[in-house]
Specification:
The radius of gyration is 21 Å and the shape is globular. The protein has one domain: Neuraminidase. By secondary structure, the protein is mainly beta. The protein is built from two helices and 28 strands. Strands 1-28-27-26 form a four-stranded antiparallel β-sheet, with no helix packed on it. The chain has a four-stranded antiparallel β-sheet with strand order 3-4-6-7, with no helix packed on it.
Length: 356
């Protein structure tokens, strides 16, 4: 009887814990009325390479402008940077595509409203005024890349410097203004995390962490975000994981993000897009949840940031119908916990409203 009683207590405890986790797991609903359409003056967007959100919950889209030219007979080409208000209405659009550079990839809005832009097909990052009228700062060299394919003259930089080679992502430490850059969006890039001070002067760098067992996996830092507790989260895309470092570059842990193919893999390529492509944190002070774009399953994985476990996922997989994604490539979370997904090949953004 004692054994049965103990087993019953254990089962009830397990059910209670499971119920509590389920009750606390965020739940979302697709907002079919966001953004407002038509956008701008019948604007047509190309691939949305990335996105970011400011303190007012304004959403900034990075439009690569790679549209079907015949569609311009019935539309106008949307500008490279598009700002939307919380209701999904256009605030403004701006940007000179030649000055910005190729393959817009990531952005970050500072507390004063100025915005960092990362064009991955370049050797630099740029900071603009809130309305885009002024290029405040450029860090790195210009004119080193062929904008048609992102190729660069010369070789990746092996020395410590504030020059970039295929930068992928940027974030800023609010406490001191230090700039963190994931430098190496494609194989052959610098494959490092570079840290600069607020004036753009080089401070330090470190590579993705490798051991003897995984040294053959190409290091490709595809995303970077700073958490409130002083950690640096980097998407190790080729290894289907997120690597966590302290701000000095010391390795803390790996967070693996897996997937299971739903169709037979014989005779076809499988699992080569990456299970951890970009990420965003929930807006609570502890940032309890982490939202990760899994391009292999084409879903959004919800992770417990503390233990790294996938606790739920949302989205309807690959496709072009509502709630589905076609190569999702950017993600952001506003102050209310709503999640936004930008699609590179889908050429749109979708909003998932937090309902619990």
């Amino acid at each position: 009887m004692k054994v049965i009683r103990l087993l019953l207590i254990a089962l009830l405890s397990s059910l209670y814990i499971s119920t509590q986790i389920s009750a606390q797991t965020p739940q979302f609903e697709l907002d079919l009325e966001w953004p407002q359409i038509p956008m701008g003056e019948n604007w047509l967007t190309g691939g949305i390479g990335g996105m970011c959100i400011d303190s007012r919950d304004h959403v900034f889209l990075l439009n690569r402008q790679n549209v079907v030219e015949a569609d311009l007979d019935g539309s106008t080409l949307a500008p490279p940077i598009i700002e939307l208000d919380p209701d999904g209405a256009v605030v403004r659009g701006w940007g000179d595509p030649h000055q910005l550079g190729a393959r817009l990839h990531d952005c970050h809005v500072e507390t004063d409203g100025s915005i960092w832009i990362v064009p991955a097909g370049t050797g630099y990052i740029q900071k603009y005024s809130a309305d885009g009228s002024e290029l405040i700062r450029q860090i790195g060299e210009t004119g080193k890349f062929d904008s048609s394919d992102g190729s660069r003259e010369g070789q990746p930089l092996n020395s410590a410097s504030a020059q970039f080679f295929l930068p992928a992502a940027v974030d800023v430490d609010k406490s001191n203004g230090d700039i963190y850059v994931a430098d190496g969006e494609l194989p052959g890039g610098n494959a490092r995390i570079a840290v600069l001070n607020k004036e753009g002067e080089f401070l330090r760098q470190w590579p993705l962490f490798r051991t003897a067992s995984d040294r053959d996996i190409t290091p490709l830092p595809h995303c970077l975000r700073l958490s409130n507790d002083g950690l640096v989260y980097v998407c190790d895309r080729q290894a289907d994981r997120i690597q966590v470092f302290d701000q000095a570059g010391n390795f803390v842990k790996n967070i693996f993000v897996s997937f299971t193919p739903l169709s037979p893999t014989d005779g076809r390529t499988s699992g080569n897009r990456g299970s951890a492509v970009v990420l965003a944190f929930s807006p609570d002070a502890e940032q309890r949840f982490m939202y990760v774009i899994n391009q292999n399953s084409v879903m959004i994985d919800v992770l417990d940031r503390d233990n790294g476990r996938v606790i739920s996922r949302f989205g309807n997989g690959p496709g072009r119908y509502r709630g589905q994604f076609t190569l999702p490539h950017g993600i952001g979370v506003d102050s209310r916990g709503n999640v936004y997904i930008a699609e590179q090949e889908g050429r749109r953004i979708q909003k998932y409203s937090l309902i619990r």
